[in-house]
Amino acid sequence: MFQQSELNILSAGAPKTGVRLCAEFYSTATGNPFEIEFATAPAICERIRAGTASADVIVLPVRTIEEFEKDGTMVAESTIELGSVSAGVAVRNSTWEPDLSSVEAFRQALLAADVLIYNRASSGRHLETVIDGLGLTRNVNEKTVRTDTGAGAMKHLAGDRSGRAIGFGQITEIKLQESLGIHLVGSLPKELNLKTSYCAGLSCSAENSVDAKTLLAYFASREGRRILLASGLE
């Protein structure tokens, strides 16, 4: 008896809600099973370079996917753009609301915070650059907490009891974790913000390229676009 092969998806965390929902709707419509794994973009890149990323469809920032297309790791011109995610600021409910209205207001908020929490992935690396550019690295170093993932940063924020903690991450990740008792204050000031565009592509080592191409087409369909936008992607 013929057994349907499983479609394997490896995705960065920021667009996880939209990617998972699209995969679920796709699976329901086609009857094709899938397995999905989420990790930070840097961790996925390390696995791809080491040859240990066993996936059919890979979701990463556009620029990163383009680099892998050039070196032959991803199938050229197979990619579908999913949307963009902005960096945001989160706090625990009923604590304080840092002012994000200008670069200087944001700078003062960083100095006033008891704890700064962000990840070691793409959004965290950007914030590290922002802090350094504002000349605050030495000022905030001792009160900074780094986590491996965006979800980890939000969980740490939820458990913080300092009173004036700030968590940073992609807006989609923050909204996904609001049930923990945190909420989105807003995006970084526009002069400092990071908007990262994500896309999905076909891995050159894909074992199930037929179903992978079907899912990629679903991402680009009207229903797929609706799901992705509803998940918070821009």
Tell me what the structure shows:
This protein is elongated. Strands 1, 2, 3, 4, 5, 6, 7, 8 and 9 form a 9-stranded mixed β-sheet that branches. It folds into 2 domains: 7-83 and 196-230, Periplasmic binding protein-like II (D-Maltodextrin-Binding Protein, domain 2), CATH 3.40.190; 85-187, Periplasmic binding protein-like II (D-Maltodextrin-Binding Protein, domain 2), CATH 3.40.190. Helices cover 41% and strands 25% of the residues. The mean pLDDT is 92. The protein is of the alpha/beta class and 234 residues long. It has 10 helices and 9 strands. Helix 1 runs antiparallel to helix 10 (222-230).
List keywords for this structure.
alpha/beta, D-Maltodextrin-Binding Protein, domain 2, 234 residues, 2 domains
Share of helical residues? 40-55%
Number of DSSP helical runs:
10
CATH superfamily of the largest domain, called what?
Periplasmic binding protein-like II
Coarse morphology = elongated
State the CATH architecture of the largest domain. 3-Layer(aba) Sandwich
Tally of discrete structural domains: 2
Q: Tell me the distance between the termini.
A: 44 Å
> Mean pLDDT, as a whole number?
92
Strand content: 25-35%
Topology summary:
Layout (H helix, E strand, L loop, with lengths): L6 E6 L3 H15 L3 E6 L1 H10 L6 E5 H9 L9 E13 L10 H10 L2 E5 L2 H12 L3 H4 L3 E4 L2 H10 L5 E6 H6 L5 E6 L7 E8 L6 H12 L1 H9 L4
Parallel strand pairs: 1-2, 1-3, 5-6, 5-7
Antiparallel strand pairs: 3-9, 4-7, 4-8, 4-9
Helix pairs in contact: 1-10
